[in-house]
Amino acid sequence: MSSSDQDDAPDGGSGGEDSPLFRRRGPSSADVAEVPVSQSLIKAASNVCFSLFVLAVLVVTVVAVTYQPPDPWLQSSAAITTSLSRVLPNSTFLVPDDSLLPTGEDFNSSSSPAIPAPAREDPDDSASAVSSAPALNATACDPDAPLNCSDPRVLAAVKAFNAKAFLRKSIIFLSYETPVPGPKPGVCDVAWRFRNRREKSWRRYRDYRRFSLASGDGCTLEIISVGKFRSGTNAARRQPQRKGSKSPRVKTPPVDAEINDTIPVVGSEAEFKKGKYLYYMRGGDHCKSMNQFIWSFLCGLGEAKFLNRTFVMDLNLCLSGAHTVDGKDVDGKDFRYYFDFEHLKESATVVEEGDFLKDWKRWDKKKGPGRITVRKVPSYKVTPMQLKRDKSNIIWRQFNGQEPENYWYRVCEGRAAKVIQRPWYAIWKSKRLMNIVTQIAGRMDWDYDGLHVVRGWKAQHKKMYPNLDADTSPDALAEKVPKLIKPWRDLYIATNEPFYNYFDKLRSHFHVHLLDDYKELWSNSSEWYNETTALSGGKPVPFDEYMRVIVDTEVFFRAKTQVETFNNLTRDCKDGVNTCNL
């Protein structure tokens, strides 16, 4: 009999070995089946149930402690659209729009905290730090020979230096190019490709720096000094000199050879007639805010994907007065000034409207088997679901009504909102603008803090923002910001405040940087200027207010410590009075 059976036996029964009954006969199988075993099974079952209960309590406790509400920006296109639908009205965009709507590269499965703890200063991060390369072919090298920049030891020394100097910065090195001679002996210019951890896209950028090297012990090489961001100009890729140029001594600015935003074309008549197209005629969204344009454009792109059709897009944009200095709309802008057309082509099937209309007119036969079939859709009330089985070559949506009936995004309202998923992943910011962002952050050696100061019309609107103006005054900033950021750090201020000297009181606490400190990056001698001028057919492109918003915001997002207006500086709500909890 088991010990548990003995404990459960009643007094005076078969519970002890000295009992006469125990000595007289052993326990029968019936006794074991009726009492001890049944009780053991009940006890075992109760133990299992209790264990499951304890495990469930632990699981619930862990989930309750660690759970955070899901961030819709880091989820699918459907979740992103649902989140934006809560704040973007269905019929019109009423609030003055000077903000930056996130684009595809902002939506990723990995994110960093909004205000990370600033990294501790590393004394080895100095550009004058000395780095040694291991000896290569020590028996064959001559320490007294002139430095050959193509020597593998040079690149090894540069890699070792970068790995140490950028250890605590947000740079991931991808590849290096062969070092080239600098302007004098002992100096080499080295170029490499990298990406930024704080940028969610896979984009690659270039840096090239000037390194001074000297022979160390044996055959090692030591880096004595390093130039700043893009100081190694001999390693930069430049545009080829034009034939017949009268000024060969003038160096052309570097170019980004990786940008390919040429317009795709339909190769033949047979290919054109084989295709299926969705064509949106220009509607009331033209000359509206950029945020409304993106919201509407992605609706059309999402419908084209749902219908499995090629989207016909107009590269011509009208910049709303919300993004211009004088408040007037400016037509004739190019989509490629602001967004990455190359990435769009890779993410969705699109053709340019001008070429599409020419091909349509050239290859259409009014009668017979070669006729291009067209279905005209006069109203947004014809849903994408009703067009799903349409076999026409072209579905032509016409938006001829009055506002807001002629807005593109009306197509994606109602029942269609549950079917159409806006392809946010297809829209990235322009690589040309992001190159400017990279240069600004690189000049601060990727080690700076950021301050976002919102003023403009919000500071003047006392009913919606009663405290903003006072909370972001020069005196208030001088009192609050030093408590949030370590003294004498490089501080980049992203702001819509038009007066350059507005932040002078912060200069006694920090090394202040503003966007206007980097005007040469979009001047008439810049890489950006040359590339945008080529897109515009030789006409200079002004660096407008929306471009400034993009660059300003992206530089701020790359800061180590980020101080926000509505999170850290003012009691007002971001969207006005009584909206903090919405």
Verbal overview:
The chain is of the alpha/beta class and 582 residues long. Among the domains are: 152-226; 269-428, Rossmann fold (3-Layer(aba) Sandwich); 430-564, no CATH class. 31% of the residues lie in helices and 14% in strands. It is built from 19 helices and 17 strands. Strands 1, 2, 3, 4, 5 and 6 form a six-stranded antiparallel β-sheet that branches. α13 (431-443) packs across α18 (545-557). It is globular and about 85 Å long. The N and C termini lie far apart (68 Å).
Task: Give a brief description.
Among the domains are: 75 residues; 160 residues, Rossmann fold, CATH 3.40.50; 135 residues, no CATH class. Helices cover 31% and strands 14% of the residues.
